[in-house]
Design a protein that fits this description.
The protein has one domain: MFS general substrate transporter like domains (Growth Hormone, Chain: A), CATH 1.20.1250. It has 15 helices and no strands. The relative contact order is 0.16.
């Protein structure tokens, strides 16, 4: 795990658990809102509020998880004990979330779903912050980090592909609650096995143990004082406000704008296939044009593609396929390159402070991601309710206009802002090489 090219097996072992994690997140992020409103009959504003509160709570829960994993010193290392601790809560909570007791309704059902969503994201934090941090530690080589996070993303995307199969089965099932139970049980068992296998096969850098910040406030203050980190986090947050529209709204747009009920999985597949194919393509493109330049260009493309959704109408399935295809290709860039840049920013922090704070940085990263998702889901829930949304019925023109604005105008604006901010990021390959040389020479 030095300056050499990482063996493919090491990257694969690291990435493998993301198959299960990606499935869980895919099913929850793409379909739990619609499952809750249309099958469980929970009000959309209520579910939107539950998602918003859970993501905000989870975002702040990331901070102590990141700090404590930086400070952990054990025989297993500082990340793997956290991965081990995540196995039981991730599996049990995911199963409970998709299988509320049949007799629950009203307030009791709302409380069950609230507890399930909050605990689901909290359990995922126990895994995700240390796992992302471990990825940044596998190599210090500038472009090798892009390989690591590309592989992690490919595994994650593979899990989301499987989630689309789950959505397909749920949308066509005559007993969706029973189907949800079966799917969640399989996912819980498989994900637990993948995490345990990865822990057993993975090794960590012994020299990084005991090098986290001794003060949590200082750790996160260092993140904020890092000028590269501030720009990166702001860009990432605003970019995710745009892409959150796709995962949250596509089931509603499919049924109530396009009038193609049951086609959500097809449209998401139209996004995910080009997304997955594009991931390895962005690695050489980022080498040729620079990580930042490739990322900014992808945001411009995504904003324009989303903006065209304003003109969607009944039967426009070809247009939405074209849009999600373009967005998928472009989104492969940001999802691959952004965490690679984050790892480079952590090296700059080490140059300034002499500490290795991957956990603190990826906790701040997750705070931005989950904050953006919370804003998007809360906004969607309240706008739909305010516009007169009625589940399983023809929508008014006001509701359809609200869906178009949420799906098109908001992402267009957010991506434009993110591209402008991202263009100011300055930590490039040559500056990173100077930082690594100084660290190797013991200069800070």
């Amino acid at each position: 795990m030095g300056d050499e090219r990482l063996p493919l097996r090491s990257i694969a072992v690291y990435s493998l658990p993301m198959l299960g994690i990606g499935y869980m997140f895919g099913l929850v992020n793409f379909y739990l809102l619609k499952f809750s409103t249309d099958v469980l009959l929970v009000a959309p504003a209520t579910m939107g509020l539950i998602f918003g509160i859970s993501r905000l709570w989870d975002a702040f829960f990331d901070l102590p998880a990141g700090y404590l994993s930086d400070r952990t010193v054990t025989r297993l290392g500082r990340r793997r004990p956290w991965l081990l601790a995540s196995v039981v809560p991730i599996s049990v909570v995911f199963l409970a979330l998709w299988s509320p007791p049949d007799g629950l309704s009203g307030t009791a059902l709302t409380l069950w779903m609230a507890a399930g969503v909050i605990l689901f994201y909290s359990a995922q934090t126990i895994f995700n912050v240390p796992h992302s941090s471990l990825g940044a530690e596998l190599t210090v080589v500038y472009h090798e980090r892009t390989r690591v996070f590309a592989a992690r993303l490919i595994a994650d995307t593979g899990g989301v592909f499987l989630a689309l199969v789950g959505i397909f089965l749920l949308e066509r099932s005559s007993a969706p609650r029973a189907m949800a139970y079966r799917l969640s049980l399989i996912a819980a068992v498989v994900t637990a096995g993948l995490i345990l296998f990865s822990i057993a096969q993975q090794r960590e850098r012994a020299e990084y143990q005991g090098r986290g910040s001794t003060n949590p406030y200082t750790a996160f203050a260092d993140v904020w004082r890092n000028p590269h980190a501030r720009l990166l986090l702001a860009t990432f947050f605003i970019e995710l406000l745009g892409v959150a529209s796709l995962s949250t709204l596509i089931p509603y747009v499919s049924e109530y704008i396009l009038h193609t009920p049951g086609y959500t999985s097809y449209y998401l597949l139209g996004y995910l296939l080009p997304f997955a194919v594009s991931i390895p393509v962005w690695i050489p493109l980022s080498r040729r044009f620079g990580k930042r330049n490739a990322w900014v260009a992808s945001m411009v493309v995504k904003g324009l593609a989303f903006g065209s959704c304003f003109f969607l109408g009944e039967g426009d399935w070809l247009q939405i396929i074209a849009v999600v295809t373009v967005v998928g290709v472009a989104d492969g860039c940001g999802r691959t390159i952004a965490p690679s840049l984050q790892a480079d920013v952590i090296d700059y922090d080490e140059y300034r402070t002499g500490q290795r704070k991957e956990g603190a940085y990826f906790a701040a990263w997750n705070l931005a991601a989950k904050g953006a998702m919370a804003v998007a889901v809360v906004l969607t829930g309240f706008v739909l309710q305010a516009s007169g949304f009625r589940p399983n019925a023809e929508q008014t023109e006001t509701t359809k206009l609200a869906l178009r604005v949420l799906m098109a105008i908001f992402p267009l604006v957010f991506y434009a802002i993110a591209a402008v901010i991202g263009s100011r990021f300055r930590l490039n390959e040559s500056e990173h090489a100077e930082i690594r040389a100084a660290l190797a020479a013991g200069v800070s």
